[in-house]
Design brief:
This protein is mostly helical. The protein has one domain. Helices cover about 75% and strands about 0% of the residues. It contains 4 helices and no strands. α2 packs antiparallel against α3.
Amino acid sequence: MDQGLKHGRHRYASGLSVENILDEQSQLQSAMWHLLIAQTGSDIESDVFLEIVRFDAAIGVATLASVTGFHQSATKQEQDWDTIINRLLSEWEHATLTTTT
């Protein structure tokens, strides 16, 4: 988590945007997918599929930390960031970009 926060702060200090962080996430996921698929051929075995899912979950948490670090630098406000980060870590599995009706 600390490295993800540091990554986001670095991206902010470098003048990049959250979109840049999300693009990095997408490129990393794509590279990992292609690497694992290249090793297995056209038939994805269950252990490779589980590695892809596990990696996607890990990079999702790392990206969440990076975006949090970015906003931590951007707001420059005194906030209880430890509480915010702990809440994100405990609830990341429930985060979604889709809406339910």
